Amino acid sequence: MLRNDIAITPELVAEHGLKPDEYERLLKLLGREPSFTELGIVSAMWNEHCSYKSSRIHLKTLPTKAPWVIQGPGENAGVIDIGDGQAIVFKMESHNHPSFIEPYQGATTGVGGILRDVFTMGARPIACLNALRFGDPAHPRTRQLVAGVVAGIGGYGNSFGVPTVGGQMGFHPRYNGNILVNAMAVGLAKADEIFYAKATGVGNAIVYLGSKTGRDGIHGATMASAEFDDKSEEKRPTVQVGDPFAEKLLLEACLEIMASDCVIAIQDMGAAGLTCSAVEMGAKGDLGIELDLDKVPCREEGMSAYEMMLSESQERMLMVIRPGKEAEAESIFRKYGLDFAIVGHTTDTLRFVVKHQGEVMADMPIKELGDEAPLYDRPWVPAPKLSSVDAKSVSAPISNRDALLKLIASPDLASKRWVWEQYDHIILGNTMSGPGGDAAIVRIESGPKGVALTSDVTPRYCEADPYEGGKQAVAEAWRNITATGATPLALTDNLNFGNPERPEAMGQFVGCIKGIGEACKALDFPVVSGNVSLYNETNGQGILPTPTIGGVGVIADVTKAATISFKAAGETILLIGETKGWLGRSAWLAVVAGREEGAPPPVDLAVERRNGDFVRALIASGRITACHDLSDGGLAIGLAEMAIASGIGAKLDFMDVPGAHREIPGDMPSHAFLFGEDQGRYIVTCTRDQLLQLQRDAIAAGVPTWHLGMTDGDALVLPGEAPVSIASLREAHEGWLPSYMAKAA
Fold this sequence. Notes:
The protein is of the alpha+beta class. Helix content is 35%, strand content 22%.
């Protein structure tokens, strides 16, 4: 008989995040009132974080297939074939709400969780990336949040032993009450040895692996599916506590047990812990699951069935084991000092049965727990179309030289060296190009092949025009990978938005999804995994729409990868792509002119494809010596970053070269040409003997080019401006963040 010793009241239902109509759905599903444990299970399975009830119908429109895609969305991580019998396994997920409440632990467990998603598939992690968004630097909590999150990411990744090779970090007042911490992990596996979560076989043992279960993280997934308010600090007990050393042991034990042919199915205990992992394994295999919680290793006494089912304690796995392999599997885990316990078995009943102390605490239809979760086509309104900013109507308040120095020292564009120097980005010895470039390059084993990795999004574009902003986020990731010479293959996304129950916020989500989907199709860049994080609001104030894109590409020979640094004096600098001087939503307009307005730059996907393919061919043929894609801050910032990276200056003189534009086009203001953020553009350098043929090839390919000048000296010389020394550029670029973090809180 089902035990139910706690009265289920409307107040209790509401505390579990279920709306009245959702509770009615549950009553119809069960044909009776749920037990307290069942209410907890359903609150976990049906919350936004686990069920994607507001986003599923839109996510289905994204392209997820390609000849090189082995596994798309729906598993712990996506998998792509990179040839030679090798596969890359990768995914990005959010830990936004926990990181705001407890920045260090929230960030550590974000990293730990995404690493488990990757090695659960049978891959050894080879790299981590992240994307971070914080509030106004002047906000009293921002500095503490930055310090805690960065320390947490470094503390876990460094201890676990995986390099953190890239990422993104930005600031805006709209993140004051709800920061974003998006973590991405990348692993290497054999293409024919991928492990999945689908349970098979009736009567097979279900094994609990890893660390013990505690009371940390209970209702963590539910918390991630609700808005914040002034009492958010009270949710601190729902933040999990991570142990990177235990996770390292778990990694090695899992890979060894997989190699021993013991595993039928394996699932990370992530959001909603034992509940989601068990239900998903059974439901995917059309099997029932029966659990005996008396067998679950606990680190705290007197834990109830409810607490054990909803705990999100870290470093845990659930596995269906091959018959007769129990003793062998247990010996492997005991060798690593990890818990190993048979906690249940598969059944043919299609029921999810949970027993504790001899009593049935839950008995529910397993398929319907997922299939019957609420699915909403929420009302949405499109974002209003904004007019473009006429560059000629925006006068420059300061000189271009001063604007460059101001921009390169601004919070978003300033160097994040202070951050990534706290991460070990060279451990394992395969990081060929780490943080600070367009995309990181990580060698695959002994090479020469490698992967290019990046994370990108421009939230101010997505706020102004979600459709164009979604396109741009994908195009920017594709462009960053292309700028290294790698071929972009696939992406993972982390879709961070506000309250989907507000039609305006839902409209932002729908618009971004449409833009992302179109860009993925046009660029052959499918989505293979991802995460949706909604309800990123505090007291009704939503974040900027932030659909982070994590991109992965492959390069045949890492020694031929391009980097952003100038290589020598006397080389020609060329601008690839058309410049119209687009200032709407640009960094220059916000930082220099103090205006956040206008439409963002449009993204012509055919032009992106044409220009990117041309640049990639140049890199592959060894005809250019440096390459940098252009984004925030436009041409001037791109040139400054290349000069800082190399210590070699540049003089812009727009010399007349056959086939190249000679001067700023038309009556375009110089600040628009230098700081406009037109898309689909790259800066490349080449030796003089390559120039004319390169120009002829560009004309043949229909790719616009501008001759900008030459690399030379120790200063950057903009047209009509006094030189700005590389030393002063570097001081401005690298000085802001260390100075900010050194100030007393």
